[in-house]
Write a structure and sequence with these properties.
Layout: H1 17-21, H2 25-38, H3 44-55, H4 61-72, H5 78-102, E1 106-107, E2 110-111, H6 113-139, H7 143-169, H8 174-199, H9 204-228, H10 241-244, H11 250-257, H12 261-272, H13 278-290, H14 293-312, H15 319-333
Antiparallel strand pairs: 1-2
Length: 336
């Protein structure tokens, strides 16, 4: 991908999450009430699972992106709250289903739904969230929002399946890597910015501009996650997890591209192992650093974030614009 080779432009000072949220703090409070109402059920078990999910308050990056994008493109409306709720409902559903597929007992340090209530309840709860999101959009005629978010979910599924296919054959190149993370991660971030703009009444050209910004932010966000696998403090996953799962991420792909045939064969032999020892993980980590894989990935990440920030500066000055520019810098500077 050409972006990975472009020299990064200046990126603004990273803002903290409270600073990023500040321009839409009141709107986020309203969104939380809206989201709780959208998840309400008269079935006791469903309501208990819902309350458990609502207590696990995360960073709220996705609803923040929707609301900031709406503010950037004309102002937050009632439809903006539905857009944020729709994104969060469908995203939460995919996470719940992912935990079942991965047999994960924890997510970000807390027990998963399937760990507490078993797989059947988790799958049905995910289905419930999907249906609530669909009905929320259909009941209000929000067909544009439904199309934007549904397309993102389709792309997320295709990206995951493509990654599984490539993990089996270990034949992924840089272009395929960017296709995977574009579908897996960037599609949802782009859906947030696009839905926010659409909810504010932005025209198609403006929606396309903010969709491109969201896509670049999502790509940079995923590369940052992939770099975490090569070291760092509390990042929510152990060092070498991607390697254990045979995921070929940008640092490793770039390092392999720079390696001699014999060294490449040795490293791929380690990656193919079903169980990797600590020494295996350390050997791959040292190889990636020495062959410039980490530096290449960082440069790609910084270039993408800088491109997103530059595109944002083409919008009229506002607190929302400044917060989104600060979010671009936060994406590459975050520690977890």
């Amino acid at each position: 991908m050409d972006t990975a080779l472009a020299p990064p432009a200046a990126v603004a000072r990273p803002l903290s999450l409270p600073e990023i949220r500040r321009p839409v703090e009141a709107e986020l409070a309203a969104f939380r009430r809206y989201f709780r109402e959208a998840m309400r059920s008269r079935v006791g078990l469903l309501d208990r699972v819902t309350q458990y999910v609502l207590r696990q308050k995360g960073k709220e990056i996705r609803p923040t992106l929707v609301l900031l994008s709406a503010a950037l493109c004309g102002g937050v409306t009632e439809q903006s709250y539905r857009a944020a709720a729709l994104v969060e409902l469908l995203h939460t559903a995919t996470l719940v289903h992912d935990d079942v597929v991965d047999e994960a007992e924890r997510r970000r340090g807390v027990f998963s739904i399937n760990a507490l209530w078993k797989n059947k309840v988790a799958v049905l709860f995910g289905d419930f969230l999907l249906s609530r999101g669909l009905l929320l959009a259909l009941d209000h005629g929000d067909y544009r929002l439904l199309h934007v978010v549904s397309d993102a979910v389709r792309r997320m599924s295709e990206g995951e399946l493509l990654q599984i296919e490539k993990a089996r054959r270990l034949d992924i190149d840089e272009a395929t890597y960017f296709r995977i993370i574009s579908d897996k991660t960037a599609s949802l971030i782009a859906a947030c910015t696009t839905a926010g703009a659409a909810s504010a009444g932005a025209d198609e050209a403006t929606q396309a501009r903010v969709r491109d910004i969201g896509e670049k932010l999502g790509l940079a966000f995923q590369i940052r996650d992939d770099l975490f696998d090569y070291g760092g403090a509390d990042v929510g996953k152990p060092l070498g997890l991607d390697l254990q799962e045979k995921k070929m991420t940008l640092p490793l792909i770039a390092a392999l591209d720079r390696a001699e045939a014999a060294e490449r064969k040795r490293i791929l032999g380690i990656v193919r192992k079903r169980k990797k020892r600590k020494a295996d993980v350390e050997a791959v980590g040292a190889f990636v650093a020495e062959r410039g894989g980490l530096a290449h990935a960082r440069a790609a990440m910084e270039a993408l974030a800088a491109d997103a920030a530059e595109a944002l500066r083409s919008f009229p000055p506002s607190e929302a614009r400044d917060a989104l520019v600060g979010l671009a810098a936060y994406t590459v500077a975050r520690k977890k």
